[in-house]
Design brief:
The strands form three sheets. The protein has a four-stranded antiparallel β-sheet. A four-stranded mixed β-sheet has the order 6-7-9-8. A two-stranded antiparallel sheet has the order 5-10. It is α+β, with helices and mostly antiparallel strands. It starts with a helix and ends in a 5-residue tail after the last strand. The longest helix is centred in the N-terminal third of the chain and has 59 residues, at 2-60. The protein has ten helices and ten strands. Among the domains are: 86-140, no CATH class; 206-306, 2-Layer Sandwich (Ribosomal Protein S5, domain 2), CATH 3.30.230.10. It is 47% helix and 20% strand. The protein has helices at 2-60, 64-70, 86-99, 106-112, 119-124, 132-138, 187-199, 250-259, 275-291, 296-302, and strands spanning 143-156, 159-171, 176-184, 203-204, 206-207, 226-230, 233-239, 246-247, 264-269, 305-306.
């Protein structure tokens, strides 16, 4: 009897446990269903809110994204390129340099105080030009051109060291020209330095109508024959009639064009492939035009002009 009672009790306990498990599972299923329904309701509410926001943005014509794009970012500044022609950018840079320029030489102080307002007066004083800003102020219409870029390599323990040698020419195409050289590790800074050195070596050029084949009386050529030399190169320029143009080499053509010479016959001897010596020989011939003395009668007859032409 005792054994039968025990079996009956065990069977009853098992039934109760099974019934309890089934009731728990049903409760969990009900809870999961309730959670799913709540999530579906929340999603529907969000979608309805977004639709209402979109409708208001369409009415107003401005979106939150557009407003966010229009807001400036603090601490970040975009770098923009300079716009305008090459001459405008050159004049703008010269103006900026003049604003921060503090002269350290006697001639610079005279130019800064506007006691000297012409480049001819500055050269006539005999004072050396040691600051490129002087030429920027007195000759704002200058043009520059690179004649030669030479790369030099030097072998060291750490490897090859590369440097660049730049030869540049500047001029206003109206009686003033200069040539400068500079060295540097980078091409851009070396070019700017060469242009500044050329500004500090500006010379005046005498022009006239010295050809017997021409009688126009305008300063379009040399008033007389001039010679120049540098190294093995010898250069000779003769006055030419109007229409001949620049009958010279490429290097001399660039320099004479910036000096304001329009017609000339050119003769050269030596190794003209050496660009630097060729350019220096041409500049030597141009400086001799201003150092050559002329009589008043010759100046009137050949219409000789030193520097700028008065218009």
């Amino acid at each position: 009897m005792d054994k039968n009672k025990r079996k009956l009790d065990e069977q009853a306990n098992r039934k109760q446990k099974v019934e309890a498990k089934t009731s728990k599972g049903e409760g969990q299923k009900e809870n999961e269903v309730e959670d799913i329904t709540e999530e579906v309701v929340e999603d529907a509410e969000k979608k309805s809110d977004e639709k209402s926001v979109d409708a208001t943005e369409k009415k107003s014509g401005v979106s939150e994204g557009a407003v966010a794009k229009k807001k400036p970012v603090i601490g970040i500044k975009k770098r923009g390129r300079e716009t305008g022609s090459k001459e405008d950018m050159r004049q703008r840079r010269a103006r900026e340099r003049y604003e921060i320029w503090e002269p350290t030489t006697r001639l610079g102080r005279l130019v800064r105080s506007k006691k000297i307002t012409d480049i001819g007066e500055a050269l006539a004083t005999g004072l050396p030009i040691r600051e490129p800003e002087i030429v920027d102020v007195l000759l704002p219409e200058l043009e520059d051109e690179v004649l030669d870029v030479n790369m030099v390599q030097r072998m060291t323990d750490s490897g090859r060291r590369v440097r660049f040698t730049i030869t540049a020419v500047i001029g206003n195409k109206d009686g003033y020209v200069g040539i400068g050289q500079a060295k540097g590790k980078e091409v851009g800074p070396a070019i700017r330095k060469a242009i500044d050195n050329a500004k500090m070596k500006v010379v005046e050029v005498k022009r006239g109508c010295g050809s017997w084949e021409c009688g126009c009386g305008t300063p379009h050529s040399f008033p007389f024959q001039v010679h120049g030399k540098c190294g093995s190169i010898r250069v000779s320029f003769k006055p030419a009639p109007r229409g001949i143009s620049l009958a010279v080499g490429d290097v001399a053509k660039h320099i004479l064009k910036l000096a304001g010479i329009e017609d000339v016959w050119g003769f050269t001897t030596g190794k003209t492939r050496t660009t630097v010596n060729y350019a220096k020989a041409v500049l030597d011939a141009l400086t001799k035009t201003s150092s050559t003395r002329t009589m008043r009668e010759q100046e009137d007859e050949l219409n000789i002009v030193l520097g700028k032409v008065d218009k």
